[in-house]
Amino acid sequence: MSETDLESLRTAVAAFRDDRDWAQFHTPKDLAMALSIEASELLELFLWQKESDSVRPDRLESVQQEMADIFIYLLSMADTLDVDLAEAVKRKLDENAQKYASDTEAQVLCERWRRNYNEVRPHSALGYRPPAPQAIVPWPGSTAASLETTAMATLT
User: Fold this and answer.
1) Quick check: pTM over 0.85?
2) Cβ contacts of residue 53 below 8 Å, gap of 6+?
């Protein structure tokens, strides 16, 4: 859908509203509530349905009707608040692209981190050596015998 298509739909929805003198009822609050109600009606079509039943062809008309209602209210809200939906969607997609990496980008980032962590700055360069199991020091005041007794009691 091009911006001109979106704008022509917005104009058509506004003309429909104005022909009926409904602008007085189209406050942002009321439009947001209507949008939520229509979205709930869409959800209702899928309630208690198996995944395979939720995409039945005989339901498609009802789903399309509810989707159209949602879109009409969204266009009405955009008109009332003077929001350029196409521009808002583009901005949101850009924000999401910065926030959420694609699978390919995530794989590249993970590989860079792995290489940096394991090759560029390995643990040995930091002087870190994992302790051998026998080198673990008991808590102050405890003896090896009391640690062994506690460990055996925990295992049984």
Assistant:
1) no
2) none
CA angle centred on 95, ends 29 and 63, rounded to 5°: 55
Encode the chain (156 residues) as per-residue pLDDT tens digits. Answer: 565 799 999 999 999 999 999 999 999 999 999 999 999 999 999 998 888 777 788 889 999 999 999 999 999 999 999 999 999 999 999 999 888 878 888 888 878 777 776 665 556 556 665 555 554 555 555 555 555 555 555 555
Task: Region of 154 please: left (phi>0), alpha (psi -120 to 50) or beta.
Answer: alpha
Q: How many CB atoms lie within 10 A of CB 35?
A: 18
End-to-end CA distance of the chain: 69
Which of 24, 21, 17 is CA-nearest to residue 76?
A: 17
- Residue 148 half-sphere exposure, CB side, CA atoms within 13 Å? 4
